[in-house]
Structure formats: structure tokens, C-alpha cells
Amino acid sequence: MQKLLETLLIGVSTGSIYALMSLALVLVWRSTRVVNFAQAGQAMLSTYFGYEIASRSEIFWLGLAAAIIAGALVGAGVDFFFMRVLFKRAISGPAAVVAPVIATLGLLGLIRSIVGLTWGGEFKSIQAPASKDGLTIGQTTIPFSALNILIIATVSLILITLAIIFQRTNLGLSLRASAYAPEIAQLAGIRTARTRTIGWAIAGGVGAVAGMLVTSYNFLSPYSLDLLLVFGFIAAVIGGLESMVGSVIGALVLGIGLTFILNYVGTSLVFIGGFVVLIVVLLVKPDGIMARGKARRA
Amino acid sequence: MTDKTLLRVNDLSVNFGGLKALNGVNLELRKGEVLGLIGPNGAGKTTVFNALCGIITPDSGSLELHGQRIKWPQPHTLAKLKIARTLQGVGLFPDLSVFDNVMIGANKFATSGLIRAACGINQQDERALKERVQAALERVYVGGVAARRADTLAYPDTKRVSIARALVAEPEILLLDEPAGGLGPHDIEWLNGLIHNLKSATSIIIVEHHMDVVMSVCDRIYVLNFGEIIASGTPSQVREDQAVIQAYLGSKSKART
User: For chain B, which residues make up each domain, given as ranges?
Assistant: First the structure.
């Protein structure tokens, strides 16, 4: 029973980080119909900025704030200088479908190279903001740490903030309207290009938080967030790619599921487990668990 | 051009590849007027609307608003130009509530900056916007369904909500694209009344296939066929025009209202 509870708690902690990456991918997908493979690179670059500030100031939270700002600026920059130009140039034919995805892969490689040239390829670590040691309850020590609690709390705070922005503010309404049907949103006076850039900035900031949290109990390298991208993408697909709530639920399901595989089956099957979940979802419910059987667009 | 002219389109031409969708179209909308734009399917009626809304870029032609020549609008600049449009296919956001659908139309009245908007601390702004939205919904008698998702409404109500979204922007010029399409007699009667009531404050261009509606609400009518204006005038003049009769009904028939 104790092992079951531990597995569940760690699963929620792991899943909550997947949720951030998944949300970042969904935000970009909804506004541009592009699976942004560069999200891992953007998060990694932002985390390096966070690492610099956190290691100099020795304050994790200052590094997190720097990473969020860097992530938002990088995200907005990618859309403004890169995607907008690309969408203007590749407007029809097969190139219009493939070019943005290929471009994000190219961008991922470019960011990795820039990071490698600037910081080198060796592993970096960030001082965690809380203890990684397991909590002791009575006389028993469980593998669930204060850091895990802090991760869940931080992710919850970000999700609540995003929910307020999207559900309760005009900016959120503009973001949702632009994502669903940009042509109609424009007719209502919404500057959809600017709104989309804001969406990319939010996605960049959210991805940066995921990068900082993963790095706080792991290490940082030009490739360290690749697995996070893969699991974030799987979670987004489970949630149906369109739904922000779905992506969070998908991430929690994935996080808990993979932790169960890790604790009850074996480490070597975790990666395979993620892909098995992806394939099963695509075969059984290809529109994701939040699909309503109806087109979202007006 | 009379001193009452609000909007004037000069020599508008639009080509889709080799097809001339519009060829040298001239039209004039006067203040407080309801202008009908009719013609057989494919005549170019919606293309005129799309050019006026910046959805397509004209190949030639110019536009005057309040007697001043202006650039062809971009879609997002329409609200500032006090032009609003409804769409043929209703065009609501199905996942959003009725209230939020109309709130999007009130976007231009939001005065708060980005940071205040993002933080949701623009309460005074929010309150004023909500009042506008509720008033617009009540004007078209759908205030009671404000909290419902748009995709749960009956079709006539979705039409009313799309009109509310256009009206909430308080337009000087309202472009109605087939507002009576799919409506029953009761709703059409209501629509006629609404258009009559609106025209004291809003000039309207209406594209419509329901001739009863067009003949009832329009002060003047332009008739398009194959991208060209073939006739214009009051409903009774247009009704008797031989070119119109031929385009619509064939040479042996006579237009009926």
C-alpha cells in the first residue's frame, strides 16, 4: 500500500513537469498548427539563462524568473522573426504543410549548436530549491521529497495562473478566439498575429519552467530536455493536442503510468511504455481523451 | 457623391486566377440607408464583402469613407473603422459561451493595457464591457442564453448571437451576409423589424437571397451578375428591370416579390 501511494505521488510530480511541456506544445499547436520540436531547444536555452542567474546569485527562484523571461522572449522571437516569415513564404502546396515542422527541427539543431558553442557540452547542475531527500513519516522514509512537493506546488500555481488568464481575461479570450478561428477573430478587431506571438511567448515561459524544474533534480546539457519533449508530446496527443486541460490530464496519466512501470516492472521499459501509451491512444481514441466528436473551429 | 455618402466603392475589380470575380464595381452607401446587394449564386456579392473586409485584396479600385479616400482595410482594422460584418455560415466559436462570443466583438472597447489585461485586474473595463455585451444580447432577445456554449444553441439563436457580436461594436456600417438564410417566417419577421430599427444609427449593406426580405428592408438595391453591376435603384425599379428579370428568372418571367 505504501509503495502504491509513493508511486502515485512521484507520478504526479513527474507528470506535472510533463504537463508544462505539453501545455507549451499545445499552445503553439492551437495557434499555428505546428508541432514545435524546437520547444525543447527553447526550454533548454532559457534554462541555461536561468542556470547562469541561479548559479551566480545562488537563488533558484531568481534563476527561474530569468528563465521565464528568457523563455518568453525566445518564444516571441521565434514567432516574430522566424514563423511569421515562414508562413508568408510557404503558403501553398506540400511545402506549406511540411516546412514549419522541418523548420522547427532545424531550429532545435541551431539552438543546440549555439548552446554547445556558448556553454560547452558538459553537464551543469542547478542547486535545487528544496531537499531531494525522501520525506520521513514516523520511522519510514519514502522516496517522495520536499522538492517533489515544491514541483507540484509550482506547477499548480502556473496552471492556475494560466487558467485565470485564459478563462477570465480579455487577453485569454483573444488567445482562444485567435486559436479557434483567426479569420473571424480578425473581423472582430483582434490582431491575431500579435496575439499569436503572445501565445508563443507564454509557451516559451511555460517551457522554461519545465526546463528549470527538471534540471533542479537532474542535470543540464544541450540534449537534457529531449526526453521531456517526447513525453510532453505524448501527453499532448493523449489530451487531443487542442485541449489545455486535456494536455494536463494526459501528462498526469502518463507521469503516473510511467512511474508505475518504473517501480513495478523495470527501468528499461519506461521509454517503451511511453510510446506504447501513445500508440494505444492513437489507435483507440485518435482525437485524444478530451475529444468531443466535433470540430473546434467555427 | 452626395453629402450623405458614407462609403463609396470605385471601380472595384477582383480576379481569382483567370476568373474575373468582380469587374469595375461601383457602389455607394448613404447614411441611414439599407442597401441590398443581390444576384444569382456566384455573382460576386460575398466577394464585395470580402474586399471591404480585407479578406481578399482587390486587383484595382478605391474606397472612400466619409468622403476621404482610404486604403482597403485589413480585417483587424474594421472595428476601428466602425465597420462590422456577420458571416454567411454564422461563424461563432462553438467552444465558447454565447457571452464570450459577443465579448470578442467588444474587443475594441477594451482600454486596459496588455499587463493589466493579462493579470485580469482591469475590473472597471471588464464591467463596462460586460454591460455592453449583455445589452447587445438582449437587443436580439438572447440575453437568457448568455452562459450557454454556442454549439448548444438552436440555429436561429446562433444567427441572433452573430448579429449581437456585430452590433456590440456599435458599427456605423453593418455588413449582413445572408442574415435570413435558414430562418423561419417568425424569425424573418423579427429580422425585418430589427433592420428597420437599426438604420437610424447604422447604415447597412445586406447580401440576401430571400427576396421578401430584400424588397421589404432595402432603400436601394444593386444587382450583380457575373461580377458586374447590371442594375441599381429602388426595390420597385429593380423589380421591373429587364436585365434583372433575365438574370434571375429568364426572359419569359417577371420578377416577383
Answer: 1-82+171-257, 96-168
Q: What is the dihedral of CA A181, A79, A189, B68, to 10 degrees?
A: -130
Q: Which ipTM value was assigned to this complex?
A: 0.79
Average pLDDT, chain B: 88
Chain A positions contacting chain B at CB under 8 Å are: 164-165, 168-171, 173-174, 176-177, 180-181, 183-192, 198, 294-298
- Give the contacts of B230 (CB within 8 A, at least 6 positions apart): B223, B224, B241, B243, B244, B247
Q: What is the pLDDT of residue A296?
A: 39
- Residue B252 above 70 pLDDT? no
Question: Which amino acid, B235?
Answer: P
Owner of C-alpha cell 470580402: B50
- Predicted structure pTM score: 0.84
Q: Is A185 close to B151, i.e. CB distance below 8 A?
A: no
Q: What is the 3-state secondary structure (H, E, C) of A62-102?
A: HHHHHHHHHHHHHHHHHHHHHHHHHHHHCCCCHHHHHHHHH
For chain A, the C-alpha Rg in angstroms (whole number) is 19
Domain B1-82+171-257 falls in which CATH fold?
Rossmann fold (3.40.50)
pLDDT tens string B50-92: 999 999 999 999 999 999 999 999 998 998 899 999 988 778 9
- In contact, B28 and B220? CB cutoff 8 Å: no
**A2-129+141-284 CATH fold:** ABC transporter involved in vitamin B12 uptake, BtuC (1.10.3470)
Which residues in chain A have their CB less than 8 angstroms from residue B114's CB? 171, 198
Segment B178-193, tens digit of pLDDT: 999 889 999 999 999 9
